[in-house]
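Students often ask why inverse folding is considered easier than folding. One informal answer: many sequences map to the same fold, so there is more than one right answer. In these notes we will look at a single instance of the problem. The structure comes first.
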């Protein structure tokens, strides 16, 4: 069946979430004003505190309030908390696909940050964010067509067919095509939207080492690592353009680092 994107259940950022995104995009945001805005949104506030206590930000002392969470995360990572809070409003259902997509997004976000810390530390926070938002289109399809999407996920896991191929055959759209309509609501930079809306269909990476090529390489390697680390029954098979060996070479990553990342993922889950 052909789907109408205008009728999909697109996640809506809360009014206070939008205010927070607008504030942190300013050259010199007022942190106290940001705290007040976040406290007006209970879901955003609780998500922010939970995020600050996540394994990515190992703390000796638990964070219990919004000011403490902002200090730990930094202003750039507030946008990740806004996205997570918005995703939570869609991912509450106990559907198999919802749980899988939520876990996948968190894991890829974590892996992107770990890889970037090793290969491009200056973009580690950006890669954490890109990993979190890259599959929001999956979540939209799963919530717009819950029964059908659960069937597609089971089929993908059973025979190893990429979920984006099954989406295209069944819906006439794949989740990459939908992510553009979602990300525009989060004030995402255009270069991120362009990259993620063609993630599964982009041409082979050229010789350029920086910019979008670097971000794509990190995101794709994160997917390869994730698929290796989890049992097949937990996979979300997707099309990954570049081979893992090519990505390792491009990023200068040795096998021992790959093993280190496996261990990190296991410890942090």
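Output (designed amino acids):
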């Amino acid at each position: 069946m052909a789907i109408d994107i205008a009728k999909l259940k697109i996640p809506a950022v809360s009014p206070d979430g939008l205010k927070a995104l607008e504030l942190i995009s300013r050259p010199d945001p007022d942190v106290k004003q940001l705290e007040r805005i976040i406290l007006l949104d209970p879901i955003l506030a609780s998500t922010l505190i939970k995020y600050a206590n996540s394994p990515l930000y190992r703390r000796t002392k638990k964070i219990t309030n919004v000011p403490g969470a902002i200090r730990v995360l930094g202003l750039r990572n507030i946008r990740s908390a806004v996205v997570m809070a918005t995703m939570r409003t869609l991912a509450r259902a106990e559907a198999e696909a919802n749980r899988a997509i939520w876990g996948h997004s968190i894991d890829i976000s974590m892996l992107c940050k770990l890889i970037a810390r090793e290969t491009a530390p200056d973009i580690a926070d950006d890669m954490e964010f890109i990993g979190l938002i890259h599959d929001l289109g999956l979540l939209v399809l799963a919530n717009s067509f819950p029964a059908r999407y659960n069937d597609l996920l089971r089929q993908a896991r059973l025979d190893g067919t990429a979920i984006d191929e099954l989406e295209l055959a069944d819906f006439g759209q794949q989740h990459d095509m939908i992510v553009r309509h979602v990300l525009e609501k989060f004030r995402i930079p255009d270069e991120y939207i362009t990259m993620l809306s063609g993630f599964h269909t982009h041409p082979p990476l050229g010789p350029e080492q920086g910019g979008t090529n670097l971000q794509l390489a990190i995101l794709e390697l994160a997917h390869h690592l994730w698929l290796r680390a989890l049992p097949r029954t937990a996979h979300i098979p997707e099309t990954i353009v570049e081979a893992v060996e090519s990505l390792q070479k491009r990023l200068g990553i040795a096998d021992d680092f790959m093993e280190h990342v496996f261990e990190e993922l296991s410890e942090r889950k």
